[in-house]
Amino acid sequence: MMRLRSERIFAVFAGHVMLLSLVAGCMGALDTTVDPRATLEAYPTLIQEGEMVTLDARDSSPVEGVITNYAWDFGDGTTAETVVGFTSHSYLAYGQYTVRITVTNDQGGTDDALATIIVNGAPSVNISMPSTVRAGDAALLDASASFDPEGNELTYQWDLNTMEDSDGDGNPSNDADETTPTVLLDTSTSGFIYGSLRVDDGAGAFAVESFEINVTTRTFQVTWITETYEVSWDEYLDQGDSWSGNMTPGEIGRVMSFNAILELDQDVAPPHDNFTLALNIVEDNYNRRVATEAGNYSTNEPARAEMSEEGMNVRGEDGMYTSDSAEELLRMLLNSRESGNGQGPWVWTVVAQQSDPDAFIGEVDPDPGNDWTLTVEVVVMRPSLTEVALGTTSNQ
Fold it and tell me: For the CA atoms of the chain, what is the radius of gyration?
């Protein structure tokens, strides 16, 4: 009796289990989800830093129903969702990025598609250069430490003066004055030099860096030294002949004064010969002429002519002066309106106008000419320049 009852209970339990299994199977068949099919097209797939890529997933298919959501993962830490399968995105840093699109349909099904974006990095420009140099010194511009993040070989284009259009194309800021990693830039005039360097990686990326150099004047201690220079000539002239000689005392300093004496050899018998001394300072249009005066035969004093000039220029003042170069400072000190007299060539001329006594008719002239000596003394203030270093060159 007990055995029969147990068999009945087992049969009922087994029947219930079978019924539940059939119901669960039917429900599973009713809840089957159909996934969409995702596609993704990216263009361009190679871009430069900061550029934008277009992402198109509009060819994705819901398979059944409609697509309700597009979820974008751009691979750089940013995401977005759209209701249409089209968007764009810009990448600010170089590298390789994987874009993932997740498409969801109205049945809750999902599918993914991937695209790879390569962002080319711009070169990093590193310029070592002095920020300040003195006029006349050369500045070394060194960009050899510049590099490309992908290791591409770099090319260089230096515009050494963006205020000047050296290639004549109408754009002063795109000149290729030098194309080497290092440049030695000569300076001659004080002021600011503005320039730029463009570095290209050969893969479409480039970087431009501007620079400026302050070219300062040089400082000199000027001390004026007074010196006297003497030049002399001695010649012989027949009556009616002339002689000329040149000197340039202003080459060495500021001419302050001069004194010239022309002396004739003593004649055996009177009267003294008549000679003329003339001076032409060409650049000053300075012309003077003096005649010899008879000497004293009793004291054996020869005939002579004397010419002199005082206060030709203002006196030089010691002190500190600034200039782009020693040569420029010398030109300023010696050639200004108040100090430029006496520069250039001085032309001295001696003319034998009359040699007495003349010969009697038919006889040999007892005095056809004379020997003479011309002595010129010039007082010059010569500037002595000593450069003073007021600062040191610094690197930026």
Answer: 51
